[in-house]
Amino acid sequence: MTDPQYIRNFCIVAHIDHGKSTLADRLIEKAKVVDSRFYHAQMTDNMDIERERGITIKSQAVTIPYTAKNGKQYLLNFVDTPGHVDFTYEVSRAIASCEGALLLVDASQGVESQTLSNMYLALEHNLEILPVINKIDLPAADVESAKQQIDHDLGLDSSIAVPVSAKLGTGVDELFEAIVERVPPPVGLASDPLQALIFDCHYDSYRGVIIHIRVFSGTIKAGQVIRFMNNKSEYKVEETGIFILKLVPSPELAAGDVGYIIAGIKTIADVGVGDTITSAERPCANALPGFKEVKPVVFSSIYPMDTNDYEELKQALDKLKLNDASLSWEKDSSIALGHGFRCGFLGLLHLEVVQERLEREFDQSVIFTAPSVQYKILLRSGEEILCDNPADYPDEGKIESAEEPYIKASIITPTTYLGNIMSLCVEKRGVQTNMQYLDQKRVEIWYEMPLAEVLFDFYDRLKSVSRGYASFDYEVIGFRSTDLVKIDILINGKSVDALSQLCFRGNSYDKARHICEQLKEEISREQFKIAIQGAIGGQIIARETVNALRKDVLAKCYGGDITRKRKLLEKQKEGKKRMKMVGDVELPQSAFLAVLKTKES
Question: How many domains does the chain have?
């Protein structure tokens, strides 16, 4: 058991793409916890999607031993966190299990919006913040400017900032020493009753639920009976251990340690992220505060490709929720697609990641409906309802008014791209509330705009018009009045409820036309004409036609009277009419995906 005086628990936080995972690689490499034969880049990103996209999705805890210059042996528990705004909940959970935070600032780009957001998250938990200036090896690096921004924008002491190059390993030894000096040791005694926080979990097919914990007081070891304070369920611990990139068993975990426990838990519902674990024999008096309840902002329905796979999909979502506590879902059904689940996500990237994880990790073939936000609808009867599913949208005649969620967006950009960004925000119905020049080259602008406008292509277009330099952060600020309509998509005269969308009236024509165009590309031709229509109520606002496959019935006519040819054409026309009345149109999965990826023109 390590004396808590020689334990340091810290996380690495920053804006997206400021080098958190690369710095984590250097810390692991310097500490020689991995044999050089097995070493590879992005050691803490253990999902294929993370490596392919070059982003961190899951917080990853690692324990590394370090011998300081004073000769003492320390245990450093660190967590590499995501930087994208959609995964802020992952960051907040990592922060709750630490005493310190390394706040990375890119030497070439300076302080950006998520840098500020993550710093405030760390301050809420009273963490000791150590600023680190990364990427000092770049030609565009400006360390003095970064220090000035740390002083001015963050209000931190830039004199303690450690300049490093995570890519080359420059300054990493100095950073190790700064961590030992600056990050406070954990408080809490091993002799006190057991009190441990569950900050993450994952499911193993052979061993059940593997729980990631931070022990605040007491000790936990194999053979001990533990109790979950939320639902009072009890289990016997089979194994305890620490994370050194993989699970490494250890005899016990004591106050200050970060590690895992295995207790043969097969009932997933018993384990909740944020719950407190205590001893069944000698329980602690109070549960730890846990985490803030996360509120989803984007909603979409998931359906299995084969309706017989419904139960399998339910089990896959249960296991995924263990590892992604910000995912929420409830049962749903559709006339076109059968039984499924209505899911809540923290953003569009979160939705895409969940879709890919279901397909890769759980081998599920699924269809996602077009994403939507949650609208507040006041009915003429005086009742107020929340609606995020077009299928639940009430009849137009019953609606008094509708409100949509608004966000306060903060964009930090070099002044060169200011005009393009302002044009984009105005196009997305944004209203500028403030603008502040941070220095001669950078400006921060605040806009209030509808969340629905940000969902689809806003982030991609912002990166395009600013060549990747603009940073974007937002918070939901409430509901405001809107002119809301429901677009129904009719295929061959029949409404397909899974393709319906709720939309601002001013954008409805463009959106309906775009969906019809996308569907025309995806639906295969039949023996009869297929009409694809977008409608608001009884009014058709967009139409595309998939032409029929035609057989040349006149091929056998060589000359002869015109009436003979007309007779054959009329007979064919009647046949196609009958076929259209009874014919069904097969909608491929790609048609639903095409609508999901529709970009507003």
Answer: 5
At 546, the pLDDT band (50, 70, 90 cuts) reads confident
3-state secondary structure 30-54: HHCCCCHHHCCCCCCCCCHHHHHHC
Domain boundary among 113, 148, 182: 182
Same domain, 263 and 205: yes
Contact 225, 234 (CB under 8 A): yes
CA nearest to 266, candidates 318, 212, 221: 318
Pick from 307, 337, 371: which residue ends a domain?
371
Domain extent at residue 42: 4-182
Residue 479, amino acid? F
Exposed/middle/buried for residue 196 (C-beta within 10 Å: 0-12, 13-18, 19+): buried
CB 176 within 8 A of CB 66: yes
Q: When comparing pLDDT for 509 and 600, which is higher?
A: 509
| E strand map for 28-151 | 60-67, 73-80, 100-106, 128-134
Q: What would the two tokens of residue 209 be?
A: 């639920």
Same domain, 155 and 219: no
Q: What is the mean pLDDT of residues 551-571?
A: 73
- Summarize pLDDT for 121-155 with one digit per residue, the tens: 788 778 888 888 888 888 888 888 888 888 887 88
The verdict on 388 and 351 lying in the same domain is no
Helices (H), 547-588: 562-582
Q: What share of the chain is helix, strand, coil (3-state, %, to 5)?
A: 30, 35, 35
- For 482-513, write each residue's pLDDT tens digit: 888 888 888 878 887 777 888 888 888 888 88
- The residues, any chain, with a CB within 8 Å of residue 364's CB and separated by 6 or more, are 304, 309, 312, 313, 316, 358
Burial of 175 from C-beta contacts in 10 A (0-12 / 13-18 / 19+): buried
Distances (CA, A) of 566 to 80, 465, 576: 75, 58, 15
- Residue 25 has a pLDDT of 78
pLDDT score at 582: 46
The full DSSP string for 335-352 is TTTEEEEEEEESSHHHHH
